[in-house]
Design a protein that fits this description.
The chain has helices at about 30-40, 45-50, 70-75, 110-120, 130-140; strands at about 5-10, 15, 60-65, 85-90, 105, 125-130, 145-150, 160, 170-175, 185-190. By secondary structure, the chain is an alpha/beta fold. The protein is globular and about 40 Å long. The model has no long low-confidence stretch (mean pLDDT about 95).
């Protein structure tokens, strides 16, 4: 069965973006980027892959899941199909705009769709790249958390998980700390 990984940047106080969805306050330069791009090259948007020196096949993921807010952040920069090298799904019941080439809109139950994707034969992993609300909905199906913990306190914004209280246990399986203060923490569901 395929695995769902929530791979996302977060502040020390647990926010993935400011209240408007902007994440430019995170550490966007440094030694962590080289390592992460090498380990997970498919998480670099298609338009930036060449500039980042990324070529070749995907290593870890072949599918990306986005909430509407995450997808719309790309649209603001003119990117309607941010990960053309992956199968792209946007989850929203209210989105009515145009979709980029290769982007599929899912209006139905996110858990049902993820279970369908997980049971596909073969393939690589499934990457949940953003959306605190979507992550909150999908928490029961998340197998792994990879949090790029940035050395910044946001104070408020979009939380890692936007949902009612429901404790879920994970265990730390790996961690890397970089010179610029970014720590990548990997957890698996208990």
């Amino acid at each position: 069965m395929r695995k769902l990984t929530y791979y996302v940047a977060a502040s020390l106080d647990g926010f993935i973006a400011d209240p408007d969805g902007d994440f430019s306050f995170f550490v966007l330069e440094g030694d962590h980027l080289t390592a992460l791009n090498e380990q997970h090259p498919e998480t670099v948007p298609t338009a930036w892959r060449e500039a980042a020196g990324i070529e070749g096949a995907n290593k870890v993921f072949d599918t990306v899941l986005m909430g509407r807010g995450t997808y719309e952040m790309g649209l603001k920069t003119g990117t309607a199909s941010p990960y053309r090298h992956l199968r792209q799904y946007v989850f929203s019941t209210g989105y009515s705009g145009e979709l980029g080439e290769g982007v599929e809109l899912v209006r139905t139950d996110p858990i049902a769709k993820v279970r369908e994707l997980k049971h596909e034969d073969g393939g690589l992993g499934i990457w949940l790249c953003g959306g605190g609300g979507l992550a909150g909905s999908l928490l029961p199906e998340i197998d792994e958390l990879m949090i790029k913990l940035n050395p910044v306190v946001a104070g408020s914004g979009i939380p890692l998980f936007n949902r009612e209280f429901a404790a879920a246990q994970f265990r730390l399986t790996a961690h890397d700390v970089y010179d610029n203060g970014v720590a990548v923490m990997t957890y698996e569901r208990r």
